[in-house]
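Changelog-adjacent note: as of this version, every example in the card shows the full chain rather than a window. The one below runs 340 residues end to end.
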Amino acid sequence: MKAVFVKKEGGVEVRDVDIPKIREGELLVKMKACGIDGTDLEKAFGKPVTPPMLGHEVVGEVVESRSPKFKVGDRVFVHHHVFCGKCYYCYRSDYTMCPLFLKTTIDPCGLAEFFRVPKTNVQRGGVLKLPSNLDWDEATFIEPAACVLKALRRVGFQAGDTVSLIGVGPTGSLFIKLLKNFGATLISVSDLSDFRLEIAKKIGADITVNPSQADFVELCKKATDGIGVDVGVLGTPTMKPLQTLLQIVRRGGKICIFGAPEKGEEAKLDFSYLFVNEISIITSYSTSEVEITTILELMKNRRISFNEIITHKYKLSDAEEAFETARDASRSLKVVIENE
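Full-length structure tokens:
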């Protein structure tokens, strides 16, 4: 079968590997669709701090089951990580900090014709049945939208808040969709890609700014009567725009570091400014079944949809071209890979 892996020199390649053999309690799933996101691009072209496995926005059909919970033909979403539910971190609802979390993953990856789901993932709720009214491509948004939901919860977003977002790539666009759905009164976004800003406007952003053409800080301040926004979100892997968010966020406001920084990424901060203005900087990494279940319910009940964010679809054998397209912000937003 075909599967996609990161090359040592950077980029990705499609290799022929054996179909995984499953054991008691496990599933073999045929991949139907899998999204490419910023984390995948970082693993392929950057210096990631997480394991190099590709394809974690994956959905498919069970083709072999050794678990009583699932049968052949079931349409499923599969989360590559699960938490134990009984450790120090889980008892404090810090599920993504659980020692088990990064030890659980699918084999060989989500970007494969077939993949094995370990018994632990099946037992711990990492596999969810998909409703018939949710098509394969849209179902790939379950995991990234759940990551966004977790970030919004960590930063304490509430209806009526004003929000500024720097970086409106595939996941940044999901922020706009969820913020609109949850009652943000102002959504201002900044990105260097006019292509992506145009889509951001269509899906609900109130202010869209290319920082090379206009002053994002000034526009956000003006829109909030000089107060600043309640929440700022950094959706890029570089920390350089953090200084911009510090100027935009109001006194007592919060900043969420969402884009995964490369290893060694640093930023200079004036801690006296943070202290006097009580600005909180909060990080948010990955997601858990808690948020995944919520997002699936929202999508199943058609409270929110994401298909309009998809700009390109590729076959698995064309994964190299798909990744090159996904990293080109001037012409793509969400790229989805489908099975042959």
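Structural remarks: The chain has a mean pLDDT of 96.
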